[in-house]
User: Fold these one by one.
Assistant:
Number 1:
Amino acid sequence: MCTHRSSCPAADSPEARAVTAHVVAAHPEQGWNLLCDGTVVFDDTGELLPDGRVVAPRRVPAGRLVMAA
């Protein structure tokens, strides 16, 4: 699906997390973007892979959150 030079690895390959795919459709008003490898990424860091598998959001433990003064 990638059309840019040095195309991205497949969304399910081990290298996929190390390479940043390009956004081909941005929908910030709805909280998601479509990447060139077919992955849908959500603002909460969750993902929907092209084969339908779900990657759960990566949550930060509450103890590590920075509090505003």
Note: The CA atoms of residues 39 and 52 lie 9 Å apart.
Number 2:
Amino acid sequence: MAFRKLIGAILAATLASGGFAVAAAPNPSAFVVAAPESAGFSREGLAKLDAHMQGLVDTGHLPGVTTMLVRHGKVVNYQVHGKKGFDGPPMTKDTIFRIYSQTKPVTGVAMMILYEEGKWKLDDPVSKYIPEFASLRVFKAVNPDGSFDTVPADRPPTMREIMSHSGGFAYGLVPDNPIDKAYARNVLAARTQQEFVDNIAKLPLVAQPGTRWKYSVSVDIQGLIVEKLSGMSLGDFMKSRIFEPLKMTDTGFWLPAEKQGRLASLYLWSPKEQKLVPASGFMVLDITKPPVMASGGGGLVSTNADYARFAQMLLNGGTLDGKRILKPETVKLMRTNALSDAIMNGDAPPFNAARGRGFGLDFAVVLDSAKAGPQGEGTFSWGGAAGTWFWIDPKNDLFFLGMIHILNKDGDPAIKDIDDDSAKLVYDALKDPKK
């Protein structure tokens, strides 16, 4: 999953998250435990996975980590290592993490629920739902006075394009160009939904719609569209249509007091000190109270066990324990490459044919496992700024989840590729895929 090197520092949306509190009910398990050999795995191979994670804890690169591997709907490996914080209590299976941009696939599912209800179509212009985006312009150059030289957009971005980060919007979390710098000053500082929309509309797109993959605020835009089309807050919609049916009792946009003690301590890799330090600043979202607006791009907290229910639902084609969230054909659509031929035939990272990866609807997608890595073709995945990661591999009927709580993890060579390292160890241990 080399594309995470590009997004590792920008996976969090910095808008304040909002909505409902995580419920206080216990989290039921959807899974039974199976011997690794019964699912085609080598016990010794999975021991190497565990040893790798424990080694990162023992050498001080992580305070703690929790991982889960599920095949054929059965848990074949579920481990916790270390502590919730370097000076904290032991890591537990019900430890809660800020999942940042791992929120994005959940928002995508919310969108597709409304898609199935006929509330929107993939080729609709986004301006149909957010009229302020009807007359967007595209960046050309910076004028001597600091203003932007722009040209009209050929057309408004489509819904398909905002779900595949190809609509031309930016993010601002890595302000290495004039538009991202403007997003950081304006869009990410917005305090209301209308201010957020207005500030985006005032800024030019980075490229004509459909011509470039650019990680962006598109999923926060999706969250606003969910609210408009459903007449509900994003938090309430997710709760009633996703979390309650799936019994995801530890997932939400904020934590009540009785659950705050289960939250893992959040750290930041400090380039100056060359070590992990307690995280502070704008990336540390306040999840102790209901915030002003929900961030569909990065506001959720969750547990490994809860997100496993979400992953298994998707692997099952949209259903879990008799509760259908999406149709199988809708899940297939989400994990189908949605990028244009121009993008896929280009040489810009991280998604194109040469790299064997595309991007579906709020998921990265493996198109060629020989180029993209060990996961089977059709694998879909994403992750979060604090180091959480997952992939769902329909070809091998498995998924894997890992959760740590480290911002800027790419600064530490020992953990920057923890997702790639775990994938190699998992597939090395899969000795008999036919089982």
Note: The chain has a mean pLDDT of 92.
Number 3:
Amino acid sequence: MSNLLRKNYRALGEVKAPYVHSVKHGNTLYISGLTAFGTAAQHEGIVEQAEEIFSQIRKIASEEEIDFSALIKVTIFITSFEEINGLRKVLYRNYGDHLPASSLVEVSRLFSPDLSIEIEAIFGL
């Protein structure tokens, strides 16, 4: 698989684990699960954390010169459905008229107890 391009983004902070922020393969950009860890939103609710994550996803798309409307799939992991209505508003605001395929999974916890949400994204190139 010599056509894989693995990349981290300085704007998202240092990665301290064995992964990269994204992998390009063929006509697809895969973005690893992103959280609000290390940001001001880390200690906030799911809405603020989701906004931070979408800001990170937009930074990656911009750096890769990809229009956000090329977002084709997201997988969202949340620790509780309590704030689902607020999360839906964030999703609609970020997706606009370009709704991606989506999965929403409730998990018992993420890697830090402060985190309520993690999002993976896939873009078509």
Note: DSSP finds two helices and six strands in the chain.
